[in-house]
Specification:
The protein is α+β, with helices and mostly antiparallel strands. Helices cover 24% and strands 28% of the residues. It contains 4 helices and 11 strands, in the order H-E-E-E-E-H-E-E-E-E-H-E-H-E-E. A 5-stranded antiparallel beta sheet has the order 5-8-7-6-9. Strands 1-2 form a two-stranded antiparallel ribbon. Strand 6 (152-164) and strand 7 (170-188) form a beta hairpin. The longest helix is centred in the N-terminal third of the chain and has 47 residues, at 2-48.
């Protein structure tokens, strides 16, 4: 009998030990999940308050061609981001350093310049995988002649969309639609970035006329789209900062969306609560074998 009790105590102790181990494992798993979630939230907060930039992996002397192997991406807090800090390798591919860059230093456009390769013909400056297409522009689209080769622009299309009016007639509604963003300008007129003679032998600067043509770099499908659009509508070019390569989600602009942006929203209509009529009351009157219901007046 004593042996059976000892065996029961032993089995009970083992069971309690296994239960304690199971509870500890559950607790550790829960704490691990909490720690991972906190780390994820902290990482997202860091990304929200920082900007991805390129930094130098080693010392880069002046006059060196920019090489992707010498650079590395890094997230820098917004307050420590240097002016004109580069966020994309595409923007500085084929450029030279005009000043030495130290290891760990942010790559800034102020220390870079275009290489002589960019002063060659149009085919030489066209990126791989892109196509050069020329579009006609006016003084507004060319930004009063201040647009230069190497700039990046957004392209808007002003398209007349046929709509049906309330009286059943056809009308055209103007829609401003964002076509492409972060598009590289390859040439303005015949200028591709090559050094030109800006003054004659007497020191007078040559007057520069606003060109009606701008050549941009687009993908094969995009060139077909813009070729169709420029035959059907007007095109506007919007200049971007050289340090900004972000592509944002944009929606077309119509008269309705413009009015919604300008005018305040109407106040909400008050909710109309239907008034329930009180139930009618009747009285039953028996006259002989017949029964009659008469409504009680209020």
């Amino acid at each position: 009998m004593q042996l059976q009790r000892q065996q029961l105590f032993l089995i009970g102790g083992v069971g309690l030990g296994l239960l304690a181990v199971f509870m500890i494992i559950m607790y550790l798993n829960q704490q691990s999940k909490i720690a991972k979630e906190q780390a994820k939230q902290q990482y997202e907060a860091i990304l929200k308050n920082s900007t991805p930039v390129l930094i130098a992996k080693k010392d880069i002397p002046a006059g060196t061609a920019i090489n992707a192997e010498d650079l590395a991406p890094a997230n820098v807090p917004n307050k420590y981001v240097q002016p004109q800090a580069v966020t994309s390798m595409d923007r500085i591919s084929g450029m030279l350093t005009v000043a030495p860059i130290s290891k760990g230093e942010q790559i800034s456009l102020s220390k870079l310049s275009f290489t002589p390769q960019r002063t060659k013909g149009l085919a030489d400056v066209t990126p791989v995988g892109k196509r050069a297409i020329t579009i006609p522009v006016d003084n507004i689209s060319s930004l009063a002649g201040m647009l230069k080769p190497g700039d990046y622009v957004d392209i808007l299309a002003m398209i007349p969309i046929p709509v049906q009016t309330a009286d059943g007639k056809q009308s055209a509604q103007l829609v401003v639609a964002p076509l492409f963003q972060n598009v590289q300008v390859l040439a303005v007129g015949r200028e591709t970035g090559a050094p030109v003679k800006s003054a004659d032998r007497y020191g007078y600067e040559e007057k520069k006329e606003v060109t009606p043509l701008v050549t941009i770099a687009l993908g094969p499908k995009e060139t077909n789209l813009i070729a169709y659009v420029q035959e059907q509508s007007k095109i506007r070019l919007v200049l971007r900062s050289p340090a900004d390569s972000k592509v944002e989600s944009m929606t077309p602009t119509t008269l309705d969306s413009l009015l919604q942006y300008i005018l305040p929203p109407p106040p909400p209509k008050p909710e109309v609560v239907p008034v329930k009529e009180p139930p009618k009351e009747y009285v039953e009157i028996y006259r002989g074998l017949s029964k009659e219901k008469i409504e009680l007046s209020k």
